[in-house]
Design goal:
- 64% of the residues lie in helices and 2% in strands.
- By secondary structure, it is an all-alpha fold.
- It has 2 domains: 80 residues, no CATH class; 211 residues, Rhomboid-like (Rhomboid-like fold), CATH 1.20.1540.10.
Length: 298
């Protein structure tokens, strides 16, 4: 097609602004739309009319989610309405995937794993002879036991983050991820103090449990989430090498954090929300500081 033919074809102009040429189509009605009329959605961009229709066709659960969380819409539209993307999820994916790929390099991978994995002995040098390295409670989230382990956790993180981060906001979502991961490490220290662990599974289970709690709070059907959570948790008992203790700790702490978030949504409750989340973190650190030595000595 020549430039003159392109210019004479009205399908190459925005249907709402006939004087503006564009190469972009609405992914629902397939009409041409200019940048001003484009709204980012999960499947691409949609026009204002299709976005309005999508908002009108929301399910009762989505409408209740809007009222409960103070968002203009739910699901992919919520992301567009807020004008943002799950940036924290992408950053976590990038950092963890990079470290995981470095782990695949012969020689260097073993050094990275050894420097970041978690073992309760690093919390109690007088009992284990290991150096005190408490940061391993969280650094273990960023190393994995192989490519399949990494791929499965990153797929779960990507899927869960698409829903949770836009709903909670970046700061609360990051807090949920890290505190859940901390809960997983603490559970390993309490239940299996002689086990070395790696992986983001504790944090992932925290996200799944949080999605269950939040979904139940807004009146959504959470049966599917409950089944997936149960299957994944049971899987750890039948396959060797999986630290089910981290799954349990992450899920319990993630559910607790989600409960706090659902009960402190209002702006006037923001201070209480921060205080309660800090309190959960402090309790986990106090527990891991005093309880495990009794188990190890026993």
């Amino acid at each position: 097609m020549t430039s003159s033919e392109f210019a004479s074809n009205r399908d190459n102009y925005c249907y709402r602004h006939p004087d503006r040429q564009s190469f972009v189509l609405c992914q629902r009605c397939m009409r041409t739309i200019c940048p001003e009329c484009q709204t980012q959605a999960a499947v691409g961009v949609i026009c204002p009319e299709c976005m309005k229709e999508q908002q009108q066709n929301r399910t009762p659960a989505q409408k209740r989610a809007q009222r409960q969380w103070g968002r203009r819409s739910a699901g992919p539209v919520a992301i567009a309405a807020r004008g943002g993307k799950p940036v924290v999820t992408y950053v976590l994916l990038a950092i963890t995937s990079f470290i995981g790929l470095v782990q695949l390099i012969p020689g260097l991978g073993d050094q990275i794993t050894g420097a970041l994995l978690f073992h309760a002995g690093y919390l109690y040098p007088s009992l284990s002879g290991m150096p005190f390295e408490s940061w391993r409670l969280l650094t273990a989230l960023f190393v994995h036991g192989g490519f399949i382990h990494l791929a499965l956790n990153m797929l779960a993180l990507w899927m869960l983050g698409q829903s949770l981060e836009p709903m909670l906001g970046r700061a609360r979502y990051l807090a949920l991820y890290l505190i859940s991961g901390l809960g997983g490490s603490v559970a390993v220290a309490l239940i299996a103090p002689n086990t070395a662990t790696v992986g983001a599974s504790g944090a992932i289970f925290g996200l799944m449990a949080a999605l269950l709690i939040i979904g139940r709070h807004i009146g959504a059907n959470v049966t599917g989430i409950l089944i997936v959570l149960g299957i994944n948790f049971a899987f750890g008992f039948f396959v060797g090498g999986i630290a089910w203790q981290a799954h349990l700790g992450g899920a319990v702490v993630g559910a607790l954090v989600a409960y706090i978030l659902t009960r402190t949504r209002k702006r006037s409750q923001r201070a209480w929300q921060i205080v309660l989340l800090v309190a959960v973190t402090v309790v986990l650190l106090v527990v891991v500081a005093f309880v495990p030595p009794l188990i190890i000595l026993a």
